[in-house]
Design goal:
It is a single chain. By secondary structure, the protein is α/β, with parallel strands linked by helices. It is built from twelve helices and nine strands. The strands form two sheets. It has a six-stranded parallel sheet. It has a three-stranded mixed sheet with strand order 7-8-9. Helix 4 links the parallel strand 4 and strand 5. Helix 8 crosses helix 10. The longest helix is centred in the middle third of the chain and has 29 residues. The radius of gyration is 20 Å and the shape is globular. The structure holds NADP nicotinamide-adenine-dinucleotide phosphate.
């Protein structure tokens, strides 16, 4: 049985709202902050939690402060400055960041946290909205092992797998590996489905057979039907994937890795945005074929 802790959660979006809900259900004493206050109020009502008006107020008295906001700038906005969480946290408390952000901002905030005797774990997630709702996320962590050991029992409320991958930034780097692997895969699956249709095959029947073999993937299992139907109003948005690929390509410029396919797929996603797909699921790459 996990000990009940004082936990703050900043950012009640598609991911954050259900994640914070799992913390409350696990018995933690939860205080939430959301930029748009109405969401924090409705969370507080639904889960008998507290709603705070700034990240600083939410963080006061918390053992662990979790966040899941959009990007590097949003993360800086909720951590730093007078109303930021760092200014409210007590010494020894740990900040756990679930935003998909750069490894650079993770290291920057880790160093600032150290100066204030706070812990900082970068902990991006994989598993999407469904994973957050089911409490079955994969959480990739970077930071100090002592901080991880204290944060992990809290993260467990919404994780199926959670692992410390190395020093600060290693969680974000691991998430980049995930996004690089997915980008090429979705393009390949799109081309495969497109080919099956052009070849006059029953594409769904083809996939129902092939998913038992070496071409199997999460995307194949979970996205084939909607890709064939041309439905993309769900899932992980193209604009988020482009943010993530930009982070990957930026990091690759620094570490010298070659990412020719990721760079190309990013351009394809730019095309998807041009045809109105900024908020479409990432499986919408297929919409570019045979237009
Ligand atoms: N959605 C997915 O399937 C998925 C999967 C894995 C990882 N992720 C990553 O998880 C993160 C969150 O994704 P999401 O889908 O939950 O996004 P979302 O629904 O757009 O929620 C973003 C949250 O961040 C808050 N926020 C944004 N900018 C802020 C700022 N400057 N100051 C304070 N709060 C701010 C928003 O507040 P408001 O309510 O006021 O707008 C909202 O609560 C992203 O980094 C994303 O890449 C998402």
């Amino acid at each position: 049985m996990t000990a009940c802790r004082n936990v703050a959660f900043l950012g009640l979006g598609v991911m954050g709202y259900p994640m914070a809900g799992h913390l409350a259900r696990a018995g933690h004493k939860v205080t939430v902050y959301n930029r748009t206050g109405a969401k924090a109020e409705s969370f507080a009502k639904e889960f008998s939690a507290l709603a705070a008006t700034t990240p600083r107020v939410a963080a006061q008295g918390a053992d662990v402060v979790c966040a899941c906001v959009g990007n590097d700038d949003d993360l800086r906005a909720v951590t730093l400055g007078e109303a930021g969480a760092f200014s409210g946290m007590k010494p020894g408390a740990i900040f756990v960041d679930h935003t998909t952000a750069s490894a650079e901002v993770a290291r920057e905030l880790f160093a600032l946290a150290q100066e204030s005797r706070l812990g900082f774990i970068d902990a991006p997630v994989s598993g999407g909205q469904a994973g957050a709702e089911k409490g079955a996320l994969t959480v990739m962590c970077g930071g100090l092992s002592d901080d991880f050991a204290r944060a992990e029992p809290v993260i467990a409320a919404y994780a199926r797998a959670c692992r410390l991958m190395g020093p600060s930034g290693a969680g974000q780097l691991t998430k980049m590996v995930n996004q690089i692997a997915i980008a090429g895969l979705i393009q390949s699956l799109s081309e495969a489905l497109h080919f099956a249709v052009e070849a006059g095959l029953d594409a769904q029947a083809v996939i129902d057979l092939l998913k038992n073999g070496a071409a199997q993937s999460w995307q194949m299992e979970n996205r084939t039907a909607t890709m064939l139907a041309g439905r993309f109003d769900h899932g992980f948005a193209v604009e988020w994937m482009r943010k993530d690929l930009a982070i990957c390509l930026d990091e690759a410029r620094r570490n010298g890795a070659q990412l020719p396919v990721a760079a190309l797929v990013d351009q394809f996603y730019a095309e998807v945005e041009k045809i109105g797909g900024r908020r479409w699921d990432t499986s919408s790459l297929i919409a570019l074929l045979k237009r």
